[in-house]
Amino acid sequence: MVSTAHNDMCHDAFVLPYTTYLRVYQPIDAFSPADRDHWEQYALSPDRPRRVNALAAEQAESLGRLLTTPPMVAPEQESRNAYLRRVNGRLYVCPWQTRLRSWRAFSEFTEATPVALSEAFVPVSEAERAEDHYRAWLDSGAQARPGILSSNWGVPIPWFVPFGAQERCLVMSEGSTRTLLYLTRTSLGMRRLEHTLAVLREHIGQSGVPASIGNLQDWLSLTAHPDSLLELDYGGLPYLLSNDHLDEDHSVAEVAEAVECLASGDADRVVELRERLSRRWRSVRALEHAN
């Protein structure tokens, strides 16, 4: 087994889809008394999905809905499951929010897909039911921001910015565990984002700053408790990529170095790092078509 762990907040993970995740873990005292009691009891339950199986359980639940006749876009009730972490004896919770994330994903799907094609996947009656329920939920004033972002077949470059190289956790075992993730304090991640934005604005101008970095900063500002944790999880990609690819993937360190080189005026090194990142993630995206 090859195992690299630089952080006491690092744990194993097992996933199925070739999807990566950015998750906010809120401290237990950030929840309402009722929710706090639920999550504390949930953490003690022997029946909850363990972290090594949690994403597999979430995926199986989603597939079960889609394989029904007719398929269900979202569950009738919000999930009461969550990803959990304990750091220095403190419980942190990242609720699955399956119903909310399903609604949002379906809205994005219908916006990007011709009507005739989307109806081939989901009947009109189910699509209208999901849209009506989502609209009613939004009109109720409920919290509309998910604590989990996902990306298929790659990691968006801005997601690397909040993390440090020392927060990297790589585990490759001969059994069922292959994971690459980073975990940091959200407050520290926000400082790294702010620093990166300041460097970009100074050296390439506001118009050249990718909107995705500002959007990420806004999402964290509106979603994350000041004492929360932020996790970047490569999800199912480690099951697709070779050991050498994973060993050599230091995208977080390379993005951080590129920012500092930009700040110091080392343009040649910035170009070198940018090309290295582009080659790595272009090769990963190419696997989608090969698959």
Q: How are the SSEs placed, and which strands pair?
A:
Elements: E1 2-5, E2 19-27, H1 33-44, H2 51-66, E3 82-87, E4 90-95, H3 98-112, H4 115-121, H5 124-139, E5 148-152, E6 168-172, E7 178-185, H6 186-204, H7 211-223, E8 229-233, H8 243-248, H9 251-264, H10 267-290
Antiparallel strand pairs: 1-6, 2-4, 2-5, 2-8, 3-4, 6-7, 7-8
Helix pairs in contact: 6-7, 6-9, 9-10
What is the terminal-to-terminal distance?
27 Å
> What's the order of the H and E elements?
EEHHEEHHHEEEHHEHHH
Give the structural class: alpha+beta
C-alpha Rg, in Å?
Answer: 20 Å
* Helix proportion range: 40-55%
Question: Can you describe this structure?
Answer:
Helix 6 (186-204) packs antiparallel against helix 7 (211-223). The protein is 49% helix and 16% strand. It has one domain (2-290). A hairpin with a 5-residue loop joins strand 6 and strand 7 (178-185). The chain starts with a strand and ends with a helix. Strands 1, 2, 3, 4, 5, 6, 7 and 8 form an 8-stranded antiparallel β-sheet that branches. The protein is built from 10 helices and 8 strands. The protein has 291 residues and is of the alpha+beta class.
Concise summary:
The protein is of the alpha+beta class and about 290 residues long. It has helices at about 35-45, 50-65, 100-110, 115-120, 125-140, 185-205, 210-225, 245-250, 250-265, 265-290, and strands at about 1-5, 20-25, 80-85, 90-95, 150, 170, 180-185, 230-235.
Features:
291 residues; alpha+beta; eight-stranded antiparallel beta sheet; 10 helices
